[in-house]
């Protein structure tokens, strides 16, 4: 049978999602726990890979198994065998045609910035601290120029293995609540470091160091070195994956207390 899982994790101490030799990864920890609960070796397929230091509120994975377990048993058994910074939030049997990666309609990320003079003792490694004031309206105006189907070569990492730099961004929304700024980005798929590089362009515009039109210049220039910095991984969260309704997968609320 094939089973899908919802997984949340604090990516601070992990070398990203994907299994790597001699590295602690989220996938490695999850597959070890799954193999113990299923009592046979298990491999997983994820909706998307996250880099070192990046967090997830709703990563979705699937795996195949020869054993029968109830949904509650998968959840409790896995969480008992996982470190405290990885947690399974739901489990659901799925049809054989389901793929956590290829069945996804779109994916959403949220980048969170702490924007105040003093740093945060509680949100270290969870937000990007920027002490200079940011103008959210300017950032939104620049973000609007990046929505749509474009060649995002200027926003992809050198190591990106995607066959094409063309992606369709459905939404970029910049909101502020108190000292916190959230940048939500939704697309079917992303290039390596794409969201972090988008944020790296929006921040200097919000600071007033670059004009709003600079975002379009970077996009049309298609040269990575002409863009902004790659923002730190600390503030990036993989928050949602949407699938066809036929699979009836649960969802979890992203940041229910803050937003």
Shape: globular
Largest sheet: 10 strands, mixed
The total count of helices amounts to 5
The appropriate CATH architecture of the largest domain is: 2-Layer Sandwich
What's the overall average pLDDT, rounded?
A: 94
> How many beta strands in the DSSP annotation?
10
CATH class of the largest domain: Alpha Beta
Helix content: 10-25%
Query: Stretches where pLDDT falls below 50 for ≥5 residues?
Result: none
What share of the residues does DSSP label as strand, in percent?
25-35%
Order of helices and strands: EHEEHEEEHEEEHHE
Distance between the termini: 37 Å
Q: What does this protein structure show overall?
A:
By secondary structure, the chain is α+β, with helices and mostly antiparallel strands. The chain folds into two domains: 2-103, 2-Layer Sandwich (Alpha-Beta Plaits); 106-238, Pseudouridine synthase I, catalytic domain, C-terminal subdomain (Alpha-Beta Plaits, 2-Layer Sandwich), CATH 3.30.70.660. 20% of the residues lie in helices and 29% in strands. The chain contains five helices and ten strands; from the N terminus they run βαββαβββαβββααβ. Strands 1, 2, 3, 4, 5, 6, 7, 8, 9 and 10 form a ten-stranded mixed β-sheet that branches. Helix 3 crosses helix 4 (194-206). It is globular and about 60 Å long. The model has no long low-confidence stretch (mean pLDDT 94).
Give descriptors for this structure.
single chain; 259 residues; alpha+beta; Alpha-Beta Plaits; 2 domains; 10-stranded mixed beta sheet; 5 helices; 10 strands; 29% strand; globular
């Amino acid at each position: 049978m094939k089973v899908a899982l919802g997984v949340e994790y604090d990516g601070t101490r992990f070398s990203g999602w994907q299994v790597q030799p001699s590295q602690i990864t989220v996938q490695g920890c999850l597959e070890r726990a799954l193999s113990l609960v299923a009592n046979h070796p298990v491999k997983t397929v994820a909706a998307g890979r996250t880099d070192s230091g990046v967090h997830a509120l709703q990563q979705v994975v699937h795996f195949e198994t020869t054993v029968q377990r109830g949904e509650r048993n998968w959840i409790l058994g896995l969480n008992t065998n996982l470190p405290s910074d990885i947690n399974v939030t739901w489990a659901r049997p799925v049809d054989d045609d389901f793929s956590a990666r290829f069945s996804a309609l779109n994916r959403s990320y949220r980048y969170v910035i702490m924007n105040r003079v003093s740093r945060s003792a509680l949100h270290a490694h969870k937000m990007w601290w920027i002490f200079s004031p940011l103008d959210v309206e300017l950032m939104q105006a620049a973000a609007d120029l990046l929505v749509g189907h474009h060649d995002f070569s200027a926003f992809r990492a050198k190591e990106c293995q995607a066959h094409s730099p063309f992606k369709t961004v459905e939404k970029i929304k910049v909101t502020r609540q108190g000292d916190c700024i959230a940048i939500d980005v939704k697309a079917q798929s992303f290039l390596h470091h794409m969201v972090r590089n988008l944020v790296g362009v929006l921040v200097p515009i919000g600071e007033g160091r670059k004009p709003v039109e600079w975002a379009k210049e970077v996009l049309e220039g298609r040269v990575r070195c002409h863009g902004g910095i790659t923002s730190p991984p600390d503030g990036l969260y993989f928050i949602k994956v949407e699938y066809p309704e036929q699979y009836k997968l649960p969802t979890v609320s992203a940041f229910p207390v803050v937003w």
